[in-house]
Amino acid sequence: MNTDTESPCKDKLPDEFSEEFLGESPCEPLVLGGVASWKGADLKNSNEWTHHWSEEMLAALDSALSVAQGHGLVWYELNRRNFCLASIEDELKIIADQLENGRGIIRLRGLPIELYNRDQLKMIYYGLGNWIGTPVFQNARGELLGEICDEGPDVGLKRGQLISENGDSFYSARSRAQSTQPLRWHTDRTDVVGLLCLGQPASGGESRLVSSVAVQDEMIRRHPDLAALLYEELERSHLGEELGGENLTYSIPVWGVQNGKFASHYSRTYVEAAQLIPGIKKLSEKKWQALDMLAQISDELCLEMSLIPGDIQLINNHIIYHSRNSFRDDPTSDKRRLLYRLWLSMPNSRQLPKGYEVLFSSTEAGALRGGIRQGDCR
Q1: Class of 21-376 per CATH?
Q2: What pLDDT shows up at residue 22?
Q3: Is this model's pTM higher than 0.90 or not?
């Protein structure tokens, strides 16, 4: 079908995101277009999404670090008052605006990590995060700054897993992230995800990013019937999020539009985990086909690159899917993959579709939201 001529919502949502579109989701999926609907091939050789640290910005970080250390502070005690970056606030606001209203991806390049020890790097990264957004909890144990690395063969026992009927382990998304396994396309439970690269593996581990807006647009062009299914509710498990989450489920669509802005929340791992719970309605073959096509198109349209030590990658979780290739560490040569991760609630965030409150607590634009609620501990 041609959505340009047959869609009843055509006059409500032009190619650019429109603030005039006030529905909770399109009555029929529409090609959204706009700057957020980018393709990896267009960005592969472009530096438009890369910001290099200026001497002024690096000096501001050094000054803030020196003052914080002088007061005997540790990284988790830092905030905008005791880690002052007011002199570069305008530059950081530009970054936040590009995350929300631009392509949704930023790479900050050139942080000289060799000049700092690990404690100092945590202070710099966490302090910086407080000036871009507000850090939120990444698990039910109060993790605010995650260390992403291979945690070994027993990672499932620590981060979450299910045991299938034949005795195989089914890792949660968190367990997969802390292993050498590839990560499939997914989003996290926050407005913005930030990664600071400290170490590269011996091989593999490339970061992969794709515009979920572009994925939606392309699926509509190819199979609008399958695209429409992703605007319907889909049952997911809390496996690896809340303690005891392997027995808890929630149901929201993969895609939604609110006030003219697109948002997606998705991880196939949580969908598959829900299907293992007795009594959960089995997913139709058509919906599995829709999820397969989401992954296929994401692979086709993605930007794949290697993070180098000192890189900070920031992505708008609502309009970007991220994944990772498998990797191999080599301890003998000290080639180990290590990233520091932040989840940030953003003051300039978009309003989210109805139903997202099950994950984000609030769907209001600019609200302090997302992360793993500590009251979920069981």
Answers
A1: alpha beta
A2: 35
A3: no
